[in-house]
Design a protein that fits this description.
The complex is a heterodimer of chains A (167) and B (105).
Chain A: H1 3-15, H2 24-47, H3 56-60, H4 65-84, H5 91-118, H6 126-146, H7 150-158
Helix pairs in contact in A: 1-2, 1-6, 2-5, 2-6, 4-5, 5-6
Chain B: H1 6-9, H2 11-25, E1 29-38, E2 44-52, H3 59-77, E3 85-92, H4 93-99
Parallel strand pairs in B: 2-3
Antiparallel strand pairs in B: 1-2
Helix pairs in contact in B: 2-3
Classes of the chains: A mainly alpha (167), B alpha+beta (105).
Chain lengths: 167, 105
Amino acid sequence: MSLPDDLLEQAKHLANREPKRPRQASLRRAVSTAYYALFHLLISEATLNWKRAEQRPRLARLFEHGKMREASDGQSRQCKDFMKSNPPPGPDLDCAVQLELVARTFSQAQQQRHTADYDNSKQWTRTEVLTQIALVDAAFQSWHTIRDESDAQTYLVSLLGKPRGHN
Amino acid sequence: MPIVPSVFIRQGEVREALKRAEDALKPDVIRIRANLGSDWTDEPAIFFRVLLSDTASQPNNLQMVAQRAATRIIDEVKADDSGFHAYFNFRSESEQAKLNDPDWA
């Protein structure tokens, strides 16, 4: 399995590690790991477009959490605006629905990861964590449905940040 | 800087919107609580806490229930038009019964 798939599986394992009384450490790491599963999925998909495979890990390190979040928020808004315009049923609408789910889930998961990693006052429950993992799992499935669509590929490029001269 | 819409200033209207969402999402959703704040990027955010029935909280149901609830709540509160990022947490009724967390009561 790939690193993103392994991370998602690990998140599920951590969330269910203690069947009776889940430890906060396990739940926190599960939330964080689910985010990193999606983070690495999107980066690995983006770097797959780089022809020289040996340089992909180096390219992957150029992606930043904040810029990816900003791009995801923008993508989510763009998809929602399109959906609100009452487009006819078809592949464009299907793609927008799936892409919006991926982008929105990325932003949600990043915020949850930040809370899980840094806010010790927060008490996590297994349901909170399993919900987060289920949404990331859904984002994985959506991504695999649309990964070859032009809008999905444009989203991957946008994750690197805004072009120069763009506010 | 987002413009704070009147819906957020008039807390009563927020409560009404959440009540409408609760009614629409029964029996999966027991109650919804929310507070305003900032997310980790310092952007204004609204944090929703959604208490689910134990049946709705079964692992196989979570994805569908959570997506349906989030969509309905965003629509009712008009979170998309507010400039606030909406974030969601979901707990089960039995978890809350054990924790007795006042933020979820």
